[in-house]
Amino acid sequence: MGIFDNLTISSVLCVGGFCVVLYFIYDYWKMLYFSRNGIPGPFPLPIFGTLFSFTKVPFILLQKIWDIAQICSVNLLENCNEDT
Fold it and tell me: So where does this one cross the membrane (predicted)?
């Protein structure tokens, strides 16, 4: 006798799936704002956006610094074990 008596699992799944699809369409449209306006940048992923593109930059920078230090024969860890 309640309002939810006529709901079935398939109808709930269909409505839920439709809402998820609408969310992904909206999220994709929202994240492409800058590219639609001609502003260059990394391509965003659904839900995560550009999170992964920013996490790669510091690692690449640190790798380049470490490579330069190895080429110049600089020991970056030489003062770590000394007692002061």
Answer: 6-26
Query: Among residues 47, 42, 53, 50, which one has the least CA distance to residue 27?
Result: 47
Tokens, residue 1 = 């006798």
C-beta neighbour count of 12 within 10 angstroms: 11
3 state SS of 36: helix
The neighbouring-strand residues paired with 45 are 49
Q: Find all residues with CB under 8 Å of 52, minimum gap 6, and list them.
A: 45
Asked if 31 and 49 touch (Cβ cutoff 8 Å), the reply is yes
